Amino acid sequence: MDNDLQMLEDYLDGTLSKADAESVNEKLKKDPELREMLALLQASTQGIKLAGRRTSIRKIHEEFILETRSNKKMEPATTRKIFPWWMGVAASLTLVLAFTAISIFRFPGSFLDEGAIKYELPTMRSAGTNTDDLETAFKNENWNVLLEKVDTQETDRKALFLASIAALQKEEFELGLQYLDALESQNNVQTEPLFKNEISYYRLVFHLELRDYNSALDAWKTLDAEKDNPYRSSLGLMDKASLWILGKF
Questions:
Q1: Do 16 and 70 sit in the same domain of this protein?
Q2: What pTM, to 2 d.p., does this model score?
């Protein structure tokens, strides 16, 4: 994923060799998803660049209005020449930003609302202690009970994980990350780690909920590196591209 994005970024920047650029062109012809990613990168990059020019465009427009008011003898031809240029830039800016907003800024809401995986408690899974009451609270979605009974100093790993899900449901995202940190610390002193796959995935979810895209991008890279993690396929290609762009900018 990162390799594809870096390749397309270099392609747009014109820093690839002729042979590499031709190779990318061939890949783009064969891969529609890669073409979508390229279009998204083009729109987002251009949108960011144009957004940075808003002040300059506004200043030019204001100067033009002042000049028009102070110079009553300005020829109509000059007016006709300047307005289409400014209006064209403004229209381009609006269209690019609108496209970028639709393509990128639906994320992460689109993923969190539609694509996020809901955790289902397995019938048989034990962290070594009796947590039946917590499991019952989890199954009944009694999130407040879980948060009341489990604090971040807890050493039972199942309890910590169930509490992290409760924190997610109650939109206590910072607290949820604290539970995951505590769970990971307990895993580090145990022979067999528990909920390892879930820790990577829900760390990503919590950072997305917090709109901390830099941390979310790091969490995604960790998840993506875990080739056997079943949660790795939870993000679609466009979700990954959107996260990469938001994390970079």
A1: yes
A2: 0.63
